[in-house]
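Action item from last meeting closed. Structure (323 res):
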C-alpha cells in the first residue's frame, strides 16, 4: 500500500512510518520541519527513516494547497495518515496563528487532497483528548458532548472532526479521527512533561508541578498508539450508518496521578525531583481518562504497555540520546 504520512518527522509520525515500512508499505512522508521544538530531533528521526528503500521524504507545508494537490495529481496514494499539526495546549494560548495555519487551513488541504485521490481507501487523522475540554464526567466517551473546548488547540482539533464529517458526508471519503491521550515514549516530544521533567531531574534542576500535583493523565505508550493507528487504517468505516466517518478515543484507559508519574521518573532516573508547586494553568484540564470500548469493539484495540514499563524505556532512550 502507498501511504501518504504527514508529520513524518514528528514523534508519532516517525514511529508510524517505521511500523508501516516494517510491514512492507510504501511511505511518502511529508513535514515542514518547523522549529516549534529543536529541528535537530526531527532530522535525527528522519535520518533513521531515510535509508529505507520504501521511504521518501518531501518537505511540504500543509498550507501549501496548490503544491500538494499538484504533487499527487498524477501519483495518487492508497491511504493518508494525517498527523502533522501544531500540537500542544499551552503554546496555543500565546501563539494562536500556527494553529489556524496548520490545523485549519492545513487540515482542509488534506481533505481536498483526499477528495482528489481516485481510489483512496481511508484517511486517518489525529484528533486529541483535549476536545473533551472541561468535561467532568469520566471516563471520556465519544458519546459525550464536546462543545466546550478550553484551548484554541482543542477547538482546532474539534473543528477537524466536524470538517472530516462534512467531507465524508459530501464525498463519501472514508475518514477516521483518533483522539490521542497523552502519548509518550522514546523519540518523544521535548515540550511534554515526561521529557522536561526527566531532563530537569537528571540535571538536578527543579520542576514546576501544576495544580499542586493534583492532576491525572491517561498516558499512552507510543507502540500502543502505532498499533492502533495501523489497525484502524486497515479497517475503514463503511457508509452503512451514514457518512463513512468515525471518531475513536485511543488511550491506555488508566489515568495516573501526576505525583505518581513524577515518582516513577525519580525511580527510573535514580534521583529525587525538586518540586515547585504551581496553580492550574489556563487551558489545562484536571483529568483525562479514555473510555476505549468503541475502538476495542470495532478494531480489537488493546493497550499493552503500563506506565511502569513505558516510562523507564523513555528514560533509557533519553539518556542515550543525550549522551
Ligand atoms: N503526542 C501527544 O500526546 C498527542 C496527543 C493528542 C494529539 N496529538 C496529535 O497527534 C499528532 C502528532 O503529534 P506528535 O506528538 O507527533 O507531534 P509532533 O509535533 O512531534 O509532530 C507533528 C509534526 O508535524 C509537523 N508540522 C506541523 N505543522 C505542519 C505543517 N503546517 N505542514 C507540515 N508539517 C507540519 C511538525 O514539524 C512535526 O514534525 C498531532 O496532530 C497532535 O496534535 C498528539
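Sequence:
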Amino acid at each position: 500500500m502507498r501511504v501518504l504520512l504527514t508529520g513524518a518527522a514528528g514523534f508519532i509520525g516517525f514511529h508510524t512510518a517505521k511500523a508501516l515500512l516494517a510491514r512492507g508499505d510504501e511511505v511518502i512522508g511529508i513535514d515542514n520541519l518547523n522549529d516549534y521544538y529543536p529541528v535537530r530531533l526531527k532530522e535525527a528521526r528522519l535520518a533513521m527513516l531515510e535509508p529505507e528503500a520504501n521511504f521518501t521524504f518531501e518537505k511540504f507545508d500543509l498550507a501549501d494547497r496548490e503544491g500538494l494537490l499538484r504533487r499527487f495529481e498524477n501519483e495518487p496514494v492508497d491511504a493518508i495518515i494525517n498527523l502533522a499539526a501544531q500540537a500542544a495546549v499551552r503554546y496555543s494560548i500565546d501563539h494562536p496563528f500556527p494553529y489556524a495555519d496548520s490545523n485549519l487551513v492545513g487540515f482542509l488541504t488534506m481533505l481536498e487532497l483526499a477528495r482528489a485521490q481516485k481510489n483512496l481507501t481511508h484517511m486517518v487523522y489525529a484528533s486529541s483528548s483535549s476536545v473533551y475540554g472541561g468535561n467532568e464526567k469520566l471516563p471520556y466517551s465519544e458519546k459525550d458532548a464536546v462543545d466546550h473546548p478550553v484551548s484554541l488547540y482543542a477547538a482546532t482539533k474539534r473543528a477537524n472532526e466536524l470538517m472530516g464529517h462534512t467531507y465524508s458526508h459530501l464525498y463519501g471519503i472514508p475518514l477516521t479521527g483518533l483522539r490521542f491521550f497523552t502519548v509518550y515514549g522514546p523519540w518523544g516530544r521535548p515540550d511534554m512533561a515526561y521529557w522536561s521533567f526527566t531532563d530537569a531531574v537528571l540535571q538536578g534542576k527543579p520542576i514546576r508541578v501544576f495544580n499542586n500535583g493534583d492532576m491525572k493523565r491517561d498516558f499512552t505508550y507510543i507502540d500502543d498508539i502505532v498499533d492502533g493507528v495501523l489497525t484502524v487504517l486497515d479497517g475503514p468505516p463503511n457508509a452503512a450508518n451514514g457518512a463513512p466517518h468515525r471518531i475513536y478515543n485511543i488511550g491506555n484507559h488508566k489515568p495516573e496521578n501526576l505525583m505518581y508519574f513524577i515518582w516513577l521518573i525519580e525511580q527510573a532516573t535514580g534521583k529525587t525531583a525538586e518540586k515547585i508547586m504551581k496553580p492550574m494553568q489556563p487551558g489545562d484540564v484536571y483529568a483525562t481518562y479514555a473510555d476505549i470500548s468503541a475502538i476495542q469493539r470495532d478494531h480489537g484495540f488493546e493497550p499493552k504497555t503500563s506506565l511502569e514499563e513505558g516510562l523507564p524505556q523513555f528514560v533509557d532512550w533519553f539518556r542515550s540520546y543525550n549522551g
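Note appended to the action item: Residues 80 and 123 are 5 Å apart (CA to CA).
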